[in-house]
Amino acid sequence: MPAEAAPAAPGPENLFRHPWRFVTEAPAMAALPPAGPPELAFAGRSNVGKSSLINALVGQSNLARTSNTPGRTQALVFFVPDPPNADPDALPPVALVDMPGYGFAKAPKKAVESWNALIHDYLRGRVPLKRVFVLVDSRHGLKASDTTVMNELDRAAVSYQVVLTKTDKIKASALEAVRAATAEAIRKRPAAHPEIIATSSEKGAGLDALRAEIAAFAG
């Protein structure tokens, strides 16, 4: 009797059809939830648009807290799908992680140092972490702090993918120039996914492509 085929991973049309819910926030590594489903983290400079992009992906305006003030997110914040009638004991298929922004932030120096250390510890040592989406403001391109994070991910052999944000705020020709420069910068990096996704949280550009990337990791 032939072996039964494993069930297919949920596609983006199913994964993002239902609401998502907040699970927990971890201000330190000791506060992280137990290892569970694959984790996909959103990293980037402060005010790059991580929380806004997560809200746009799931179609919920207030799931992740947003602010125009750099440094609003100060812990690792976990979200999972919350379909109706789901088994409360079942493992979610995937978790999204909203990370504190690195770089400049309007917060006390010690607080910034603390969450920058948390970012780097999490990126280097979290077993369920399967991919990091490194968000880059399309108006500015890669900065030194982005390169530092990518260097760490390369050393830790953690897969990452560059996601350009706020593409509605620049001209198409400028966007293509940033995309080309970014592609060249990551071309020889061992842990970098070669495809760059250009997104706009306000206009919806690139969201379906990013949802498909996320769904590919869903268990």
UniProtKB/TrEMBL annotation:
Belongs to the TRAFAC class TrmE-Era-EngA-EngB-Septin-like GTPase superfamily. EngB GTPase family. Gene3D superfamilies: P-loop containing nucleotide triphosphate hydrolases. Necessary for normal cell division and for the maintenance of normal septation. NCBIfam families: GTPase_YsxC. Its cofactor is Mg(2+). Keywords: Cell cycle, Cell division, GTP-binding, Magnesium, Metal-binding, Nucleotide-binding, Septation. This is Probable GTP-binding protein EngB. GO terms for molecular function: GTP binding; metal ion binding. Coiled coil: none annotated. The keyword Cell division applies. One of its GO terms (biological process) is division septum assembly. GO terms for cellular component: cytosol. Residues 36-219 form the EngB-type G domain. SUPFAM superfamilies: P-loop containing nucleoside triphosphate hydrolases. The keyword Magnesium applies. Signal peptide: none annotated. HAMAP family: GTPase_EngB (MF_00321). The gene is engB.
